[in-house]
Amino acid sequence: MILLNWIRENFFGTKLDVAMTITGVLFIYFVLSTVISFILNSDWTLIMVNRQLMLTGLMPQEEIWRIWTIFSLTSILMTISISFWFKINIKGSIFYILLLLIPFLIFTTKNTVLYVLLIMFISIVFFYLGHRSKNSKLKNIVSKIIMISWIILLPICFLILNILDGPKMTLWGGFMINLILAAIAIFAGFPLGILLALGRASSYKLIKLVSTVYIEVIRGAPLVAWLLLAWFVLPKFLPNLFGLSDINIVVRAMIVLSLFASAYIAEVIRGGLQSIPKGQEEASFALGINSISTTIFIVLPQAIRIVIPTVVSTFIAIFKDTSLVFILAITDLLRIGRLIPEQQQAFFGKSIESLAVVALLFWVVSLVLSQISRTIEKKLNI
Q1: Is residue 345 assigned to a domain?
Q2: Is residue 92 part of a domain?
Q3: Model confidence pLDDT, tens digit, residues 169-210
Q4: Which residue blocks in 168-248 are alpha helix, DSSP H?
């Protein structure tokens, strides 16, 4: 009875509610029936055959262990972080599990089933350990270990990809290269963006001018233009500067994405800095706290806390922007999704299936980032 009363009050309370409910149900039915019909009637052989290509690009088969090692470390770190720092309910757990199952189901083959099962088992173990350590005496130590692990994760990933005569960067590709480029852009762009935001808000004219010019110049041109600049112009105008002309195109893409991301993150952080009342700075000065300490320990933490939703939205946009590197002939996920139907005669004309999977993978990562942002917002009462 309680459920029926709730449905009646919320969906059929007035004539307008009835009309909107019927319209919404019809729309949902149309969308779901279209999607289900597409899934059931499409030929997914293209995806089944090219799973590894879509995941790792042109990386040789004997080097795939590097990718699964990285996925293992990342999965373990994610699960222990979620269980240790956030309150997880059954609904949230089911949601995250279903989302993470999508890429695993797409990329798992007979040869990689053992890898996937091992990753899942180890992740569950660390999830349990993280949950148990929440209320233990080692809580502070575990928290520091997790934070340090996130900081060194990216260097460790690069080490795994390059040790023991690893594959050349030109062979990196697929979904992996999109994730790596996004991670580099976020980890390098975020601290640089904070420095630029502080510089633009600085009272020192020269620092403010340099920061403002940098931000406006970078934001004044599209990312595609900067990527092409890194490919064609830099090697010609700066041929001897630190061997720039010899830098791999993948590294150039990383640099451009990081610089581009930093400009947009800087404006987001600056908005947070401007939202902090001036009275807090005046109070800290009255207590004898210098301007640097005031900014670092009082103003900046509050500013970042306020703009977390916008910062995460910027991170999502950066991740989606990594699909533009295909113009540099980097075999990222989008480029592979476009080329498979064109170059493999057996799948000619089946671009919709491959691009649908590409869109699904981008959507999954974006949704996971969005949900993490919401969880952080609830924890911080934003």
Answers
A1: yes
A2: yes
A3: 777 778 888 888 888 898 888 999 999 998 888 878 888 899
A4: 174-200, 205-219, 223-228, 234-237
